[in-house]
Fold these 2 entries.
Entry 1:
Amino acid sequence: MNSEAILPQTTPAAAMIRTLGLLSAICGLIIVAAYQLTYDAVQENKRIAVERAVFKVIPAAKSIVEYSALPTGDVEIIGAGGATPPGALKFYAGYDEAGRLAGIAAEGAAKGYADTVRILFAYDLATSSIPAFSVVAMRETPGIGDKILVDKDFLASFPLEAKLSADLKALANAIVTVKHGSKTKPWEVDAISGATITSRAVGKAINDAAQALLPRVAPNLDKLKEKS
Amino acid sequence: MSQQAGKMSARNWDELMEGIWRQNPVFVMVLGMCPVLAVTVSGVNALSMGLATAFVLVCSCGLVSLLRKLIPKEVRIATYIVIIATFVTVVDYVIQAVSLALYDALGAFIQLIVVNCIILGRAEAHASKNPPMAAMTNALGMGVGFTIGLLALGTVREILGAGSLFGVSLFGADFQPWVIMVLPPGGFFVLGTWLLFFAALERRKQRKLAEATQNA
């Protein structure tokens, strides 16, 4: 008994393979062409999106340089390829018109109400504080969680104090989100009542990222001071 | 000759109007509800999702129709999916090139156009049996019909839920947005209301028809 008796087949396998092969070739060509044609525009869009986000949190900045902070405690410029060594933390150094460092910015992320809230925050080196943040991506409830962008009391928590401890290993005071109206210290974030989870996510995202990044950046400030 | 041409254009018109009105994918066939409910929080999202779907519909139906004599029936579904996935990838890149903000707003629903039942349904039920011109006309009608359906939800939800239309504020700063309209339940409310409206239209038409036959 051969297989054809079990599985009646009207089209020979060769015809199927030929059709699928031809089709895959056509579709492959279309996809490659689309990728090539849109590549430059997509990369340019991504660069503009990053620049806009950084300029928003560091208003004095006119140009940015991407750096990675290595686990060894060193910093280096990220090349055109965008590859970073394992364990490195990415951050942006914003420079003003004269090429002086206006501030640094980094991404942080923490679990919010609906999904991870990803933010970009600035760090001002002169005052050791976090003057502002912006949202990179979030799926929080419209009208509730997304108040973190507009709520006056919440935004009045900034600038947040973020001084490093004496041994430069961590923040002297961890940044925490406290209940609405009970903020007393400069490193506390005043939560929005009704949107506590999202408010906490912002505080945690800033704290986690700052605790990891700032001890690596602090010893290298001289390297960052002038635009290279 | 001109009579034949007239017949052709009448047929084309028929093919086109099938998707836009008689068999509208959103309001008559109630297909593709996942993107219809999920992305219609604003007019811009609805319009771009509709255009993206229409583009994939027209291109994949055209290619399916061109290759219809070459495709063995045993592997036809696999073939359709490959073709549809190709054009979805193209749309994905194009939207990224046009606007990253729009790309983020539409999220996974761009990639999910691959499994949109309207497109697979058109490929299987129409494009695989008709010449390219008719298949693409029919697909264009379906695409436009789908876009109109999305816009009908998107504009209403944006006006009520955000007080704006295509990002332009309509009522000024004192407007208190009806937030539930841009949340998932709002999608069901607005869709239900539209379906009610079209069902009422249909009943009125039936009643008029019955009255007309009675009088005759």
Entry 2:
Amino acid sequence: MAQTYRLQDRGRVDLERPIDFTFNGKRYRGYAGDTVASALLANGIHLVGRSFKYHRPRGILGAGAEEPNALLQVESGPRTLPNVRATQAELYDGMAVTSVNAWPGPDTDVGAVNQLFAKLFPAGFYYKTFMWPGKAWPYYEKVIRHAAGLGKAPTDPDPDFYDKRYAHCDVLVAGGGPAGLAAALTAARSGARVVLADENPEFGGSLLSARETIDGKPAIDWVQATLDELRGHPEVRILPRTIVFGYYDHNWIDLLESRTDHLSRKPDDRPRQRMWKVRAQEVVLATGAIERPLVFVDNDRPGIMLASAARSYVNRYGVKPGNRCVLVTNNDGAYQAALDMQDAGIEIAAAIDVRAEATGPFTERAKQAGIRILPNHGVAAVDGAKRVRAIKAQPLAADGERLTGASRKIACDFVASSGGWNPTVHLFSQSRGKLRFDAETAAFVPDRSVQRARSAGCCQGTWGLMGCLKDGLAAGAEAAKAAGFPDTKAGSTPKASDDGFLPARWLWTVPGEQPVGHKGKHFVDYQNDVTAADLLLAIREGYTSIEHVKRYTTTGMATDQGKTSNVNALGIVSQARGLPIPEIGTTTFRPPYTPVTFGAWGGRDVGDLFDAERHSPMHAWHVRAGAAFENVGLWKRPWYYPIGNESMHDAVQRESKATRDSVGILDATTLGRIDVQGPDAVEFLNRVYTNGWKTLKPGMARYGLMLGEDGMVMDDGVTACLRENHYLMHTTSGGAGDVLAHLEEYLQTEWPELRVYLTTVTEQYATAALAGPNARKLLQEVTDIDLSPEAFPFMTFREGTVAGVPARVFRISFSGDLSFEINVHADHGLHMWQTLMSVGEKYDITPYGTETMHVLRAEKGFIIVGQETDGTVTPIDLGMDKLCSSKKDFIGKRSLARPDMLDPQRKQFVGLLPDDPEEVLEEGAQLVEVLKDAPPMDMVGHVSSSYMSPNLGRSFALALVEGGLHKHGQKVFAPMPGGKTIACTITNPVFFDPEGERLRA
Amino acid sequence: MKARYSIFSLARNALSYHENWQQAWHSPEPKKSYDAVIVGGGGHGLVTAYYLAKEHGMRNIAVIERGWLGGGNTGRNTTIVRSNYMWDQSAALYEHALKLWENMTRELNFNVMFSQRSVLNLAHTQNEVRITKRRIHSNRLNGIDSTWLDPEDVKREVPIIDLRGGGRYPVLGGSIQRRAGTARHDAVAWGYARACSEMGVDIIQQCAVEGFDIEGGQVTGVRTSKGQIKTNKVGLVVAGHCGVLANMAGFKLPVNSRPLQALVSEPVKPIIHNVVMAGAVHAYISQSDKGELVIGAGTDAYNGYSQWGSNPVTEDTLAAICELYPLFRRMRMLRQWGGVVDTCPDASPIIGLSPVKGIYLNCGWGTGGFKATPGSGHIFADTVANNRPHPIAAPFALDRFRTGFLIDEHAAAGVAH
């Protein structure tokens, strides 16, 4: 397989290591060190895909991150990747790449029919049509959606995994070109911890594509020597294939390291990519610059590429983009590419130079080298649809706005285009740095940093190599010093040439034979098919703000985010509006610099690690017992314990009945526990709970309601007085974190004078709740605590041993039955549980889960915060106004005095009994008093909890109903979908043991 | 009268190389005085002006905008439109809006690409199931389409979803509103601007409010970066900075301003049809007509005015996306941005009168403003024109924070917002 366009005498690819790959199913060969783009060009392939809207044939424009055209689908199956820039994808053996947005292929693309209608598709055409007939939009949209999009998303789960790492450093250097390497060097010499990252597999940046010398030797030797020295510094971390993509507040920088995409066989144990989150004391941005294409007619024809890219293919990859080149330029610097190409044996057919006079150091050398220069010429036309065949040059009129005189046709097989350079200011702009427009180079350059960062080299508008090195050395030294390291002698700057690319002429649109938009297309944003005519149309229609231009035409919004198009678009807008570019402004640079894999953002926080899972010490027992679990906050709680093939309903009925009949056991470890200590602890409790705490003596416990400042119930639980100034607060399982944050916020911001200290002790205890008439008998067998009602009354606690281990036993009840909650050290939890289970055998002890817990508490009319309450329920609504002390202030008290809080028609907490005792209402069902044939109907409340109770022998529910406290006995209806209606009677919410005899037994 | 947009006008203009299109809206300098000034050239402000002109005969009015039209949250949101809100008051408001959305393209003769591709709200915990069902029942009895989906129904609607949610938070079901969907956000601002301009409304961009003239508790003018404008009616329709403007007018608003972020992927061929919202893990996703996956993330945990959003929020959201749609792990984030959302303590907006006579409020929409755009502007125009709240607006009065009549959308946590 011939690589006709491969140069044997130059380039950095390894000619000893051939690599086979396929493109659109056909086999080709390249070499190690190639990108897909360079390997395709070596095989003479320019046409790689079709454009987004018009399906125009498209070739390779660039040689790096700026590439807008050459987006390919890499591989198929689970590892497929859409929209990969061919210019950055490293070639590996067996790689399979295909064109996107072209069917059956880029050569014979059916979608090319769009070109026939191109005149109907100017910018924003879709806002003006597809409106008739009125209901047809979904059909139009379907067609549009299938036409849009580029590559295909994977359809299988990703076999790869991703990694994240944090790093801190004194100096982060973004970019490993001459300025970046120089900066890393001086920073490293000072002893600073340096991170140096570059997106390429090799360091050297532009030097890889150059033929310049440093200190008289090939520049690459200096790169090697610099890297060798950097590797000798133990505090330096060198990250190749790592793109610095995001710059956030406080020098938080995100990097993406590519680890396996370049490998033929992907190792199982290596993450595909690693996201680095670096907090840098100081930053040096050395991100280089990106060349702008010239905007001339049909400048998108395959074979037309950036001059810098052509130079890169020749010098770095040893590939000729063609045999006969026409250079189209507006600046002197581009002749450097022409000279390098000529040196490689490429014929330079002509240089079309839009400058009135072709002058400058490289221009002079080109003249000496015999290159034919056509100064003050524009491009009248481009021949060749799938590959440029010739270019027609014609002199420019004096104003540069049209062509004049005779044209001449110049045959060629590729075109190198240069419209000047843009410093890569993306990261600087992301960091919130202010940009300044430099009129001389017609480019935005960094002005003022707002973070601890500085730019060096081309990215700050320093154009010669010597200048870049000098910049880099100084920036590295300055950064290290600012990070607190001693001054280092930068040493003398290595000797190198110091040529920029000026002089230049800023002709934002190169005129063609006819006015822009009449014949042919002047592309600005290649990928989104935005032309100069589109920009002019936007302005004509009043979309004059650059943000409007961008959004109306979609310029700069493609996957390259306008790297080659933004400034050209600004220039064209500025000219059309007759305003200088700085007054047009720029759109905001958003992270990331280049697209970043979702998987890398997720890292290892996937699968079981997506969110922490909290387990009680008895969890393994529950698993063995076959429990079904439910998520409660981060906890996994046993939901119910099915025996054999028992359904959830049957299990819950069995558990509920067994508990009421004898004894049940619940793992209550998940309740939040906050240790409250300090001389002002009781005052603190008084302020955060609605009820009073002054009378609570050591050994006693009390139920408390906690409100938000809006007066709504936010949490509830029992707090015990362990000793003077020392309390143990219980919160709901899911609310523990929020409650602690709430309490700390008040302590730290509202009441800093209170001497109170809060410690979360949720994890320190394991808790089992024994409930049922036999709870006392069972527990007494394993404890030294006197459990008699006289010695241990309701709402108190005692300390002693249970199952031989130290325990604190609360006599509190959420089941409404005789109940003890046994707290032991977490380590003893399983032992305590197992002891109770084995001793409990004779009482038929039954473990029950959260569902039975819900049934039991609902029978008793106990609320669950988050189920009976939803952030809109006050204690008054719950009929718990007695718990709101009138003698003291508490959080939320003032809100409770608002007029609406006292409205008797607020939704209030009630019980419900369906007329049909077998009918279980759906939780969430809405209630109406007046039935209608069809919605809408006025709703008066909703069902918050609903169960079948084996203890009541019927279904029942809890609900919130407008004015419900005074509606006991009245009828309400739950209209269900399909026309069924469930009639119920409003009742008192306490269905079981209303006198509390069981509770206090 | 402006030329109507249609395939015929496109064809006709193609003959003249599209060089004869007129401006979509005029950009005049401000006059000395107006009958009403709407502050804020986003969707809500422009719709307000549209209905003031169209239904209340007020043509001598202006919309003033600090930046560029639609540059605030109108152009920064994830374009979701739905009306499946739980509370009656919210349902009335958003359903009113949804009905206007359904006719917007034709009414404006501007294709806003309102696409009723259905919105799913997933439930991942038992509590979410309960809340979701409660909302569905409420929606249904309010006459709003809303249906429960079992997990297998969810899978049928969204074949690419992993119902196991990666294992940690399995999908237990969800709701679907089929009339809900997405729209092209920028087009909403442009379409209304064009329609306003046609009726003689002055649209003035790059015009920042610097203060208000208030005499005896009545507003008499607005001081702007383009000079003083006399007016007796000012509608404040801004997001992100409503607290700042209220401050200029001498009163306070109960809002917190926080960055909310969103992101898009690279464009790919159609892969997900509906809008799918997963509130528990905070991952909202849809695919734009251009092929980008549009993903809504959460708000920062602290107040701020940066249109940016913090890194960990992006990480959490994309981890959740990877869990629900494992095949998206190889997709790439193209662009990430933030918008500042003004959120009231009850997560509902403020629409109505203010403590200053002649100043009207339409703000505090939090994360949910875009979907309400036409309805919000419609009832607000009625409020401004008649100096009393429109019946749908009445419950959303600023006064509710005094009376306690809150419309707490936090409570409807299953409906993420």
